[in-house]
Amino acid sequence: MACVLDESTQEPGVGNELKRRLENRHVQLISISGAIGTGLFMGAGKVIALSGTSIILVYAIIGFFVFCVMRAMGEMLLSDLRFKSFADIVATYLGAEVGFVLGWSYWLSWCVAAIADMVMVAGFFQYWYPDAPTWAPAILTLFTLVGLNMLAVKVFGEVEFWFGLIKVVAIVLLIVTGFVLIAISYTSPNGVTASMSHLIERGSMLPHGISGFFAGFQIAIFSFAGTELIGTTAAEAKSPERTLKKAINTIPVRIVLFYVLSLACIISVVSWGMIPANKSPFVELFLLAGFPAAAGMINFVVITSAASSANSGIYSGARMLFGLSKKMNAPVSLGHATKQGTPANAIMFTGVTILGGLALLFVIPEVMTIFTLVSTVSAIIVLFTWSMITLSYVVYRKKNPELHEKSEFKFRGGIPLAIITQAFLMFVLGLLALEADTREALFAMPFWFMFLVVAYLWKFKEKSRKAIPNSCA
Question: Where would I find the Amino acid permease/ SLC12A domain in this sequence (predicted)?
Fold first, then answer.
């Protein structure tokens, strides 16, 4: 008999549910937005400076394993449509305690990611208004996005659709511009001639040795944070069997287009050694192409990208709190949904938490310092999240082989590839200990996990003993 969701864990109250109002185009652009964030637009320069042209290989490797995680998640989500998110999957196959830790941790990861993105909005806003205080645009962005999330989920989907479209258009324009410059062998004012030979020129592959190659993983992993957002749209997507399959299956195409091709074009035109680590390589390419408005245009794209990611953070964090409340792992009030199917209380709680985090702007005025700190915390929790999804898949295959056989969306790599993926995620986590700016956050995170374990044992263990256990074979 298959292991299924325990209906007794659902929150009482008929009709207090999320609504399936996200169209296919919404889910597709939400999944694209999750794969394109400030990590690509701003972090790519630093990664190229560290890894040289091997950065293309770094993104390709990470992209492959992220796709493996998403395919495993997709098979499990569609094996039982009562799963509202990957947190339900983890709680079912790895235990309620793990589901509790994952749910609250994932909520925190999106809160800190939203803080990072709003900090970046503030930093780039100063491009136009250098005398503006950093906290003002950040807080304005927060209130605007919370207001949008309070509306029906279809409004969120529409906002993300257009945010995502802006990012896609910007990257496509960059790729087209790059190919044109390469085709005409354009020579920039600094004497660099656009050519694909820059990808394989001597000293470009591993300019700082294997340590530089590994350092690229530390930064690049944050660029992929949010890809699993597909798994939180499951409860609100129309025809999830069709929309989730399409969103997951197009991940490799998006990785090749948005990461591999765009970075290959940038390096071919600018040359890796001429790309400044502290600037957006996207801006540099357009400037070399002779577009004086390039900086302002890319600045606008990065702001919309950061706002889009923060918007997704509020959405996903609130939905995770809503799910936790439904299973009595969070205050019952956070499980309230409006008539439009919006988890209003969870959205407000998430917004207040982010507002508290933005107080860092008063303590640490340096934008990049805050961004590095909070983005590392987010990346660590995302690695933890992906690991729990992968481990859940292994347990799912062992407990429910019949569900796998019936699945029309099988993860073809099976248990062996899931184990290899898990090993890779642990390897990347270990790499975070190599650099001082990521090591501090890595060493601090175990205290968060221990806090959640203690909280579960103290407040929820008694309730879990009285709950009817899941029916598993």
Answer: 26-465
